[in-house]
Amino acid sequence: xxxxxxxxxxxxxxxxxxxxxxxxxxxxxxxxxxxxxxxxxxxxxxxxxxxxxxxxxxxxxxxxxxxxxxxxxxxxxxxxxxxxxxxxxxxxxxxxxxxxxxxxxxxxxxxxxxxxxxxxxxxxxxxxxxxxxxxxxxxxxxxxxxxxxxxxxxxxxxxxxxxxxxxxxxxxxxxxxxxxxxxxxxxxxxxxxxxxxxxxxxxxxxxxxxxxxxxxxxxxxxxxxxxxxxxxxxxxxxxxxxxxxxxxxxxxxxxxxxxxxx
Length: 262
Ligand SMILES: NC(=O)c1ccc[n+]([C@@H]2O[C@H](COP(=O)([O-])OP(=O)(O)OC[C@H]3O[C@@H](n4cnc5c(N)ncnc54)[C@H](OP(=O)(O)O)[C@@H]3O)[C@@H](O)[C@H]2O)c1
Known about the structure:
Blueprint: E1 17-21, H1 26-37, E2 41-46, H2 49-59, E3 65-69, H3 75-85, E4 90-93, H4 108-136, E5 139-144, H5 157-177, E6 182-189, H6 195-201, H7 206-213, H8 221-232, E7 243-246, H9 250-253
Parallel strand pairs: 1-2, 1-4, 2-3, 4-5, 5-6, 6-7
Helix pairs in contact: 1-8, 3-4, 4-5
Bound molecules: NADP nicotinamide-adenine-dinucleotide phosphate (NAP).
């Protein structure tokens, strides 16, 4: 059995660089702030520079946080991002878009955009950043998926398929990189109180979403962040290729199709 070193959770990520896509809002920002508090240099990524700079300023109180602008839906931008960030030890593929549409009304353009950001962006960022981890013999990748990857939600077909693809990639990458000491896992949130969700459903619709899922409240982004920080740490050295639900039990208590929920 591998030797497990006793390390303080407060400083366990010292000397590590973590890149968090979609790190300027919601789950991504909560994750970046937590990783920075644990000693990592956190690179946060989004398209909107104003929002990115504000998030960077707010997160400075937690530690070293640096914003980089990039569009995960654009392969050239993904390539540039990997060059600008420099080598990373931890990658959190969190950026995601979740427009909803009935299948018969789905536009090709939006279909392609969802897969471009949620799947292709993560794929080629891993391809660009994992060589350093493989050469170093260690590294951790976490993909943020969704309860919709494993349950049916009316109106969420393309989004659900994109998150299902990310869970399949999690298992493939875990197998591909295991021998070189790089672990790959996924965290699957249920409905979580983020800027993106509140924009989509509005504060009053919270109750309808949680009622439909049979849960009492939306998750807090920090609850998802805690699980991500565990998975990227040495405390999870025995875990790779798995998906952990952080959904207040929604995946196991859910019985019927709810309206589109991320
Ligand atoms: N919140 C939930 O209930 C929930 C549930 C299950 C799964 N999830 C998943 O969790 C992840 C985070 O969700 P959230 O609710 O925290 O998101 P959010 O509040 O909507 O924030 C999305 C983040 O992604 C960035 N982003 C979006 N499109 C991008 C692109 N093309 N290139 C680069 N960055 C991009 C945004 O920045 P810019 O807009 O500036 O680019 C922002 O930082 C997503 O993958 C989502 O699918 C969320």
